[in-house]
Amino acid sequence: MQFTSEQRLDSGILEREFTLCEIPGVLWTPVTTPAPLILIGHNGGLHKREPRLVARARYCAEQGYAVAAIDAPGHGDRPSSAVDEQARADLRRAMQAGEPVDEIFESFVVPLVDQAVPEWQATLDALLALPEIGGPVGYSGMTAIGIRLAVVEPRIAAAGLFAGGYVPRAQREEARQVRIPLLFLLQWDDQGNPRQRALDLFDAFGSKEKTLHANVGGHAGTPWFEVEDGDRFFGRHLK
Amino acid sequence: MQFTSEQRLDSGILEREFTLCEIPGVLWTPVTTPAPLILIGHNGGLHKREPRLVARARYCAEQGYAVAAIDAPGHGDRPSSAVDEQARADLRRAMQAGEPVDEIFESFVVPLVDQAVPEWQATLDALLALPEIGGPVGYSGMTAIGIRLAVVEPRIAAAGLFAGGYVPRAQREEARQVRIPLLFLLQWDDQGNPRQRALDLFDAFGSKEKTLHANVGGHAGTPWFEVEDGDRFFGRHLK
Description:
Two copies of one chain form a homodimer.
Chain A: E1 2-8, E2 14-20, E3 23-29, E4 35-40, H1 51-62, E5 66-70, H2 82-96, H3 102-128, E6 133-142, H4 143-152, E7 156-162, H5 169-174, E8 182-187, H6 195-204, E9 210-215, H7 225-238
Parallel strand pairs in A: 4-5, 4-6, 6-7, 7-8, 8-9
Antiparallel strand pairs in A: 1-2, 2-3, 3-5
Helix pairs in contact in A: 2-3, 3-4
């Protein structure tokens, strides 16, 4: 893991960009260390420095967590394949036309999950070797990656999952094996994430402690207080 | 309004019992006044001094709210009618037998709502005349009473509603007229409150800001952190 830039924010948070092999990422560390770690996953073409993600990460770091975000394969600073771009264009077209999208969705999300999860695990190995990071680890972000991580990675102690309407068949099955505490976030009117599928997925999780938060509005309309609620969720399980 | 007992708790909270005509109630006031007011409704035979309700009320008062609870007609210290008791026994029997319960439920909840809402309004008149109470008012409790109050009582600025699976037809219709911010609490495995009906009710509310919180477990299994979440919800709207 190579740090490539470093910035001390007015809040005292240290914000550093890094690369780990071909994976680019950002690490925020709080004033007091060692700190528990939150991994922030993102999806749908968002860059690891997308403003809303950065605001969430800085807020969490101010609450005492180390926070890491990496660009998923084909996202942010990483080269995207022509095949993926075509699949995403097909998905948008099919959604607008009201056609079934499951097969298109599977065609690019299944390989994304298969590649992203080992990358998160490698990133976790590197991060946990740093002296400023200690204690349990949480994941916050895209549902499909979070489910697989929760199943295969015992170092993940709690997860906040977002937008579970479209999730590959494999992860819908794996949901029953998830045992860690979950906070499952749903935008009630998210046209890109069918509500009933998200509710069915929440029902399927094997976790004894799972909480659903649903708010009115579309995909990008999650209210800021859910960031604060997420912080308290992790506070109950990581601190 | 007559205060009939007074106790200063170690936390500094003043806890007073009162009667207003035939309505018995309890008022908790915080150290700093005047304070915004939360009305705590309850149902199903629970007494205004039920330990969980008292713990919630004291917690809210410690966060700076005045909190009032009254015994609904036929509940707590108030005489219950033989007709109501028969209806509740019929309801339990029908639920255990898996029979339809809507008609039995309507037979005693419709008159309860019709009588309880004007009582809450009279209580509100009396409470808002006290110098230690000021500012906006929230309601937290039984869904059916909360819906009617939200529709007819403009002094209610926000509501936390619990257990919306069985709600009279009249309040299911009135839900569309509700415009205030809502926190709607659902126990995912509450056998006495059908989940799909509760989700349909959440969908029906006319409020622009409405949030659903669902947790695993039965009717009485709501985790304590929901009390804290409720406090933050009211903090956004009453303070």
